[in-house]
Design brief:
By secondary structure, the chain is an alpha+beta fold. The chain is built from twelve helices and 19 strands.
């Protein structure tokens, strides 16, 4: 079966959408879930100091329908998932006790002691039901594209049928599990540590006695502050109305005068794409020469600061599967010398009379470089890369384009290089670059050896270092960095940095307020 490409990721520099069909959802119940109460039930006057988290009242808190990041982040406190993904991209069992992989089948065994907040036992039927809605939801559909369907094996076992083998498929099973028949309610029934009480701008998260009775919880109640009509959310944090605020520096302003910060890794890869179909850049030696000329550490530090981490491989630097840095070969020469040597090996020479790099036929090495004008950091990064290559003697035609023009030229192949960003799924799937229908396959060409190596890794027949070695030899694109988000929090909050992009409030129940 032809594998559907796993992408459609948010924050793509280039976005192409394709939607697969999913099984019809079961019939819904229309009654409100038991945990939802009237706003008058919420008590705001209390001597206990509470954690206050942001939410948006103009958007739903239904995890399958919400589009706002702040509301989505709250879902991990209300709903459990089969696995949770930590800040090193490990799949940590939550509702699941085990996963067994057999080619394109993933069999997951569930805990048999989990109850929803209404007291009903959570079963395999609820998992299958929730999967159908997650497949169509804004936050989960991309990571579930490689999963064709989910079926009940017995009350505590479900089987996922994959379109292609994937040793890391557990990382994609972090979608919320809700009670059968409640997925279209305003507030579906969950089994998380908290239940939702109130409505509109008066909402609280209250300890779920059924599922958290045996846990020590510092925060019995978490208050929610509606920020939908607030222009300066950072000000709310600064004056103490909010306890913390999770922000992507690329999409939200960064105006904090007095607050603690913690970096949380995003899975957003910023990269330099090559047109290996081009008669010039089809030579991997030239692509490696360009890589050697780009001082990634200096560029990323200057442009992104702590809001990004240099990528020495195509994978997220925080991934636990990566080999230790000491095991990675490092060049002993300066970047400029290495680049010049590689240019010579590729058949180019430096013409001192013109200070340019030329081929054996005395043709000027000239490259067209595209960047989308809509992102200030990437435009700055592109200009710096162009400057470094020009210092080497390569003629660079940098084109800063509108998104429409940028996408059009990528699709037509009218480029040598481009600067892009893609949000990878939690399983580090690079198929978006290499699949026949991959939306970021711009200019990559066949490069069958890399595609085969990726397939073999996902089948489990080779390890990560082996794939990286193949990738480095061919260098289909140049990884530059992975961006970070920032958790701002007040000085009175005893925040412990254990959150991840998939689970921002991982241990919020244990936070204290001084």
């Amino acid at each position: 079966m032809k594998r559907i490409s796993a992408l459609l990721c948010a924050l793509l520099l280039v976005t192409l959408c394709s939607c697969g069909k999913t099984p019809a959802a079961p019939e819904e119940t229309t009654s409100a879930p038991p945990e939802t109460t009237a706003a008058t039930d919420v008590t705001t006057d209390t001597p206990t100091k509470k954690v206050v988290l942001p939410y948006t009242s103009t958007d739903t808190l239904n995890p399958f329908q919400t589009e706002s990041t702040h509301n989505h982040d709250l879902s991990t406190l209300l709903f459990d998932s089969l696995f949770r993904v930590d800040d090193m991209f490990n799949a940590i069992p939550s509702l699941a006790t085990d996963i067994q992989l057999d080619d394109t089948t993933a069999t997951v065994t569930l805990r048999d002691d989990i109850r929803f907040s209404n007291g009903d036992l959570l079963t395999a039927r609820d998992v299958v039901y929730s999967f159908g809605y997650a497949k169509e939801s804004p936050f989960y559909k991309a990571r579930l594209l490689n999963i064709f369907n989910c079926t009940v094996s017995d009350e505590t076992t479900v089987s996922f049928v994959l379109l292609s083998p994937n040793v890391d498929c557990a990382n994609c099973l972090d979608f919320p599990i809700v009670k059968f028949g409640t997925a279209t309610n305003d507030h579906p029934v969950g089994s998380g540590r908290y239940i939702l009480k109130g409505k509109g701008s008066h909402m609280q998260l209250v300890r779920n006695e059924d599922t958290a009775a045996n846990e020590e919880m510092e925060q019995q109640t978490i208050s929610l502050l509606d920020i939908s009509m607030r222009e300066n959310k950072h000000y709310l944090l600064q004056i103490g109305d909010l306890s913390c605020l999770f922000c992507d520096p690329e999409t939200e302003t960064n105006r904090i005068i007095s607050a603690h910060t913690a970096q949380i890794p995003l899975n957003n890869l910023v990269y330099l794409g090559f047109n290996s179909k081009d008669s010039v850049l089809q030579d991997p030696a030239l692509r490696r020469a360009i890589s050697a000329a780009v001082d990634r550490t200096a560029l990323i530090d200057d442009i992104y600061g702590t809001n990004a981490t240099v990528a020495e491989t195509p994978f997220n630097p925080n991934w636990s599967k990566l080999p230790p840095a000491d095991d990675t070969e490092r060049p002993t020469q300066s970047a400029a010398v290495s680049a010049a040597d590689l240019l010579n090996k590729a058949g180019y020479r430096f013409a001192y009379s013109t200070s340019t790099v030329r081929s054996k036929n005395d043709e000027l090495l000239s490259l067209t470089f595209l960047v989308n004008e809509e992102n200030e950091h990437r435009v700055t990064l592109a200009r710096r890369i162009a400057s470094a290559l020009e210092d080497l003697g390569i003629d660079i035609n940098l084109q800063v384009l509108s998104f429409e023009s940028y996408q059009s030229q990528l699709q037509s192949g009218a480029f040598s290089m481009y600067l892009g960003e893609v949000k990878l799924t939690p399983d580090m799937d690079l198929s978006v670059f290499f699949d026949d229908d991959g939306a970021l396959r711009y200019g990559i060409g066949e490069l069958q050896v890399v595609k085969d190596a990726l397939r073999d890794y996902r089948r489990g027949t080779i390890d990560v270092p082996t794939f990286i070695k193949v990738f480095d030899e061919t260098l289909p694109f140049l990884p530059l960095c992975y961006r970070n988000a920032v958790m701002f929090y007040t000085r009175t909050l005893s925040y412990e940095g254990t959150g991840s992009e998939s689970d921002v409030y991982a241990n919020a129940y244990s936070w204290g307020i001084s």
